[in-house]
Amino acid sequence: MNQKIFALIIPLLLLTSGCLSSEAEVSEEPIYEPQVVQTVYDNHSYQYWNINPMGQGNISEIPLNGSGDLMFSLDLTGFFHESLLWERGYVNYTVSQENETLFSVQIVQAEENYSAVWENMSGNLTVEIQSTGSDSQTDDKPGDFYIAKAEFRLKR
């Protein structure tokens, strides 16, 4: 008699365990993580060695390969003397796209870090750097200078 009961219980257990396990399974969809598809480094620096003030400028075009979220970071360092004869120098760093300014900063003596995120970007960016400066002969400090280290990272 025990063998007949076990013969009935074992198939029932196997059937119910199969049903329970299929109900307990939950399918998880993978979470989408944006991937970096393009990284551009745009680095510039300049030091003035002239006694009289002068200007310097640079324009860079950065083409974006596709569209996505653009992460921007900038390390900007500048030192400009205070002159007795003329205005103090400066560096102006601007990022624009199609005549729209996305980011702009001007420093005369600082070491700053900046960052920004622009969503759904595509097309070309323009980086414009304008600076004026000189090298004062009345002190022992180096000539005016700036260092701009920028990184543009496009994610899709």
Description:
The structure is a single chain. This protein is mainly beta. It has one domain (36-155): Jelly Rolls. 15% of the residues lie in helices and 54% in strands. The strands form two sheets. The chain has a four-stranded antiparallel β-sheet with strand order 1-8-3-6, with no helix packed on it. The longest helix has 23 residues, at 2-24. The termini are far apart.
Task: Give a short summary of the structure.
The protein has 156 residues and is mainly beta.
Give the helix/strand layout.
Blueprint: H1 2-24, E1 36-47, E2 54-63, E3 68-79, E4 90-97, E5 100-107, E6 109-121, E7 124-133, E8 145-155
Antiparallel strand pairs: 1-8, 2-7, 3-6, 3-8, 4-5, 4-7
At the first level of CATH, the class is Mainly Beta
The span between the termini is 68 Å
Rounded mean pLDDT is 87
Strand order of the largest sheet: 1-8-3-6
Order of helices and strands: HEEEEEEEE
Structural shape = elongated
Could you name the key traits of this structure?
Jelly Rolls, 54% strand, 4-stranded antiparallel beta sheet, 1 helix, 8 strands, 15% helix, mainly beta, 156 residues
